[in-house]
């Protein structure tokens, strides 16, 4: 195998997704965190699925100083939290259970119950809204391919005089992962996209779910992209649609520059993940340098057959020198499937087999290692 092929397969291996989950310890909102995000022009978030490429480069900046702040709700005296129009005795509330997110003159009210993040309401100078049946925004952990759904009801006031009564459904799904080109031109990989779709229907009478005949309501669609080592999204798109005629009410997008995630100074959980990513990058650079100077062909030659395989995969190889050899079979998303443990062997001809009969028909990656030099081969299971 030529060095160029080795480097290509090596880059393929590194690109396999290693980040496909949001969890409480790394992604839950924290009081005291302040984010600076840039409002940029909207771009279609694209389809769901694996190995997506999102190119958000060269987007026009509309507002480069948009602040989002998370805080604890105010205290009445020193014993009662006030979240919207609801009071909670402090003694009954755990740390970080109640959170207020403030941006663009609007306060959003959140409550964490067990592993579920609920939105209980929001208010600004024009609208005051309470979710009488809260929306479930997130349920940790959330893995790629998973989704959650909840119904909600709300009531409130517009301009202090007009009653608001709505109901609908909130669906949250980790529906895509891949690589993203940021507005700054930098590339992040892998990133996980979480998409929320909120349907909004008017409830003409409080407690009633009847609506005007033919009214399909509105739909608020939000996509957020997360990267390993960052508690909050790195990019976000928002789009509101009138479902009656499919017209767009508004759309916008926000870029959270990674260098402006200043909370990381006090976020040891995510700092540890970033250090892990940096260490992996450093090891990868060292490994690529090694591949450039020593190829596997200098140590061994290997014949792999049949490929595609239905049952037994044969590995026939010749060592040109003493070497420690291992074979590992992985799914295309990086999960270990089969393994022939590393063994030290003298120069000579050897024969190994891997039983693939129980594997699902799809592509796999066979990693061949000899004296710390490796290549990856694509194996097709029929």
Automatic annotation (TrEMBL):
Pfam families: Por_Secre_tail. InterPro entries: Secre_tail (IPR026444). Residues 304-380 form the Secretion system C-terminal sorting domain. The keyword Signal applies. Residues 1-20 form the signal peptide. Keywords: Signal. The keyword Nucleus does not apply. This is Secretion system C-terminal sorting domain-containing protein. It comes from uncultured Dysgonomonas sp.
